[in-house]
């Protein structure tokens, strides 16, 4: 509280409260919550990130295995539950996020992720690639790639400890259940890699979530500005009035 009080620009205080972070999370939730009852179901969540996630991973989230919902309505996720989900989804480098997704993939809850469990989730990705006329990447090939990325102590399964010891764990989860991020990873080019590396050099203290929230805040703000202009509000704007946000 003292840090937040002493800092003149509240947007620089990211660890405790950030208006940018709140704005992005709230807008994302509002977009999915079509009836605006502050609850979202599976069909709402499947639209997240332009239908990026698989039905199988959404089913696991709603089974409340990674985290029990605070929502008291059966089959519905509340705003607080969505906050945990979106931060876990957009920053797969943090330990809470790795734990969240590990529990989702570990179907039998025995503390290890096996080849069969990974194949179960990847099957839907493969089907989606075929439907989109994308060249499918066979599971055997992708399994070798994931093992190389994680370098587990025992190559017959992956533990949470293995994932926490690798910087590429987030990409493994994307391969298994986020098609958009998987395809972006597969078709990544030097420019994207260069930009990402530069961001890390310029702001080494910022997390993947911080970068995501900042990009989305700018995009959402620009959309709001365009909408205001199209509604004619730009013409009647009184500069003496302070903007509400």
By CATH, the architecture is named Orthogonal Bundle
How many domains make up the 3D coordinates? Answer: 1
Give a quick account of the main beta sheet: strands, pairing sense, barrel closure.
Answer: 2 strands, antiparallel
CATH superfamily: EF-hand
CATH class: Mainly Alpha
Helix content: 55-70%
GO molecular function: calcium ion binding; protein phosphatase regulator activity; transferase activity
Pfam families: EF-hand_7 (PF13499)
Protein name: Protein prenyltransferase alpha subunit repeat-containing protein 1-like isoform X1
InterPro entries: EF-hand-dom_pair (IPR011992), EF_Hand_1_Ca_BS (IPR018247), EF_hand_dom (IPR002048)
Structural features, described:
The protein has helices at 2-6, 19-32, 42-45, 48-51, 55-62, 79-90, 95-105, 115-131, 139-150, 160-164, 169-177, 179-186, 190-202, 208-230, and strands at 112-114, 157-159. The two termini are 22 Å apart. The protein is mainly α and 245 residues long. Helix content is 59%, strand content 2%. The protein has one domain: Orthogonal Bundle (Recoverin, domain 1), CATH 1.10.238.10. One of its GO terms (cellular component) is protein phosphatase type 2A complex. One of its GO terms (molecular function) is protein phosphatase regulator activity. Keywords: Calcium.
